[in-house]
Design brief:
The protein is α/β, with parallel strands linked by helices. It has one domain: CinA-like (Maf protein, Alpha-Beta Complex). It is built from 6 helices and 5 strands; from the N terminus they run H-E-H-E-H-H-H-E-E-E-H. A 5-stranded mixed sheet has the order 2-1-3-4-5, with helices on both faces. Helix 1 packs parallel to helix 6. The longest helix is centred in the C-terminal third of the chain and has 20 residues.
Length: 165
Amino acid sequence: MARVSDEALYQLAEQLGRLLKAKGMMLVTAESCTGGWTAERITAVPGSSAWFDRGFITYTNQSKQDMLDVSAATLEQYGAVSEETVLEMAVGALKHSRAQASLSISGIAGPGGGTPKKPVGTVCIGWCLEGMAPVSTTCRLSGDREEIRSRAVASALRGLIELLS
């Protein structure tokens, strides 16, 4: 399987931007395993400053705590790659921004780092809209590191598009 193309990611970002702009909403991202790739694809869209506020890249557990208020207890009990953590990331990103919509991503892109319970390709994604309870999902993505990361970005964008539609 090939990675999701830059063009396909651009189209998803553009579609998301149209939805956010129509609703008068701003977006914030909180990324771990994707290292800012979502924010990069979003800011490739001309005029995205009208609907994209900022992105947090929180690669370490400490940065998740410092920047997004993820609790140490959550990280200890569930791990960085968990729905509990991405929910707290999504809520924390909203709290520390001017946005009304957030998405968060944490996963194991490989080639190492996987366990029997959380193999390489395990990616958790969270979304939060102001005034609504956050939601999350866990994906099992296949491929190499780049393929897993690109699919995680696409899944996060698609999920927020669905939530806003």
